[in-house]
Amino acid sequence: MVVGGKPGEYIFRTREIDMGPAGDPHPKTTLATLVVSGAEQTKLKLPDVFPELQDLRTATPCCKRTFDFSETGNGDQFCINNVQTDMSEVNTSVRIGCVEEWTVNNCSAENHVFHHHQLQFQVIKKNGKDVPFTGWQDTVNLDFRAADKAHPNRCKCDDDGNCTGCTCPTAEDPHGSVVVLVPFLDPVIEGKAVYHCHIGEHEDNGMMQVISMSPDAGRCEAGTPSNIDRLKMSPKDRALCKPSGKYKHHEDDHGDGDDDDHAAWERFERDLRASWCRPAETRATAQANYSLWQR
Ligand SMILES: [Cu+2]
């Protein structure tokens, strides 16, 4: 909320942000100019009581998953758990009625921003440090990994931002990791949705996956590729991004004339629409799971 001051012009500025050795420059800039003019308006009163949110740390998670955000050495192509977006896959399948614990890792030398559709989550750890409960959110920054004296293996980058040998965060070197509790509780979320990096260029070049949320799903089904067994892999293997060679956004942005992905997007959007009109009995199961969790 913005409260206007005396008549005049006010500049709304962004801060400068360091996106990391492989990131694009983001100097401070003017986001908007606000103009205050005219007769004074009656002040709006803020509500005295806000809806109460539950601290999700009281729930026992149904499942623990790991999501590794990585990119190719030249920073052109982007992956989650080594692969690029494929709209014909379901990468993660969750049961409605469950709270899950997700560890979301930045395995590259530039910032990423984790975003989940349809719900909000609670951040409980960032870079290995506990985060106190202040509420829920739907985006969170994943800090870039860069080599320093104490951590020479995080990523080696040249002056042009080309990086090699990156590793994903580990228990010993958690910088770049965020742990969130995700409440798959409200029956209204049933169907397919996506989670992705909120930086458009990253999302459009592979850093997005499909999630299916259903009251009938297993409690902890592995994703495609698995988002459960990743910690058995080496931190270096987890940081690889393997371009599929076929990935494009729903329009032919990259100009190679291949519209395979366009058809996949159309199928995906049709599925999404179908999932909004779910049968009454499925809604009833979802509602039952929801009330079970609330007891
Ligand atoms: Cu990103």
UniProtKB/TrEMBL annotation:
PROSITE patterns to which the protein is assigned, alphabetical: MULTICOPPER_OXIDASE2
Chain residue ranges for the region called Disordered: 242-262
Gene3D superfamilies: Cupredoxins - blue copper proteins (2.60.40.420)
Top-level division of the source organism's lineage: Bacteria
UniProt KW Membrane keyword: no
Xref: InterPro entries: Cu-oxidase_C, Cu_oxidase_Cu_BS, Cupredoxin
Pfam families: Cu-oxidase_2
GO terms, molecular function: copper ion binding; oxidoreductase activity
The keyword Ubl conjugation is assigned to this record: no
All copies of domain Plastocyanin-like, residue ranges: 70-213
Keywords: Metal-binding
Protein name: Plastocyanin-like domain-containing protein
Source organism (scientific name): Methyloceanibacter marginalis
